[in-house]
Design a protein that fits this description.
3 helices
Amino acid sequence: MDDASLNFNDLIDRSGHADFELDLTGLDLRHSLESIRQMIERQRRRRSIRSVLIRLDPPVPGNGETLFRPVGKHLVELLKKEMVSRVKPYADEECSGFVIHLPAGKDVELDEAKE
């Protein structure tokens, strides 16, 4: 594969189109991960797939590491556990983050099968 056919910009979502938004700007890592956990927990009770734009603080020169990497690693772990069905990096002029897709809740499927 040559460099001309490899375009990393295609991997980044710049539209920000999602059903919902989770704004984690201004939060530390612990609070960000807790907010994501609560969002996943609420999704377990929903009947449909939802997309969510997760907003993080943008990088600031000389300010050190952002939450992009640790939150991204956490989302990959959730992807492996099938608690998230899709993860795509997001970036615009104001912030960075991820667009994720949450599968329909498994608890709901089990409840419907019992009926």
